[in-house]
Amino acid sequence: MILVSACLAGCNCKYNGKNNNVDQIQELVKANKAITVCPEVLGGLPTPRHPAEIQVKNGEIYVINKVGEDLTNEFLKGAEKTLEIARDLMPSKIILKSKSPSCGFGTIYDGTFTGTLKEGNGLTADLLYKNGFNIEEI
After folding, report:
1. Overall domain count for the chain
2. What is the residue-wise DSSP string for the chain?
3. Which domain holds residue 12?
4. Measured in whole angstroms, how far is the alpha carbon of residue 137 from the centre of its chain?
5. How would residue 11 be classed by pLDDT, with cut points 50, 70 and 90?
6. Does 83 fall in a domain?
7. pTM exceeding 0.90
């Protein structure tokens, strides 16, 4: 079994109410070979919502949306719930949406809302990786 970001399977759960559908991912879900998760929705965030990015202040990591609201707790809650699902499912791999403050793995937006990328992981991807899960991103 594979765990995948819900937006990659065509679920309209992105911040803008849309998705990042990848036909191959959607086919895996339809064939019952993959299960979808959206950490941001699991954390209690609505769809649509303002875009959010990770910022570091005084060495602490925060997730702040474009209007300045601190959503760190919601993102952490979604990451923890996703980890619980992964522990129950024990997927062979986890495929996540690139650049996301939840699911990005290796590269994320830099917190300035200018489209600039930096090295780093989203909160969910980082938690899953630190718990030994095999992460891939699309």
Report:
1. 1
2. -EEEEGGGGT-S-STTS-----HHHHHHHHTTSEEEE-HHHHTT--SS---EEEEEETTEEEEEETTS-B-HHHHHHHHHHHHHHHHHH--SEEEE-TB-TTT-EEEEE-SSSSS-EEEEE-HHHHHHHHTT--EEE-
3. 2-48+74-105+121-137
4. 10
5. very high
6. yes
7. yes
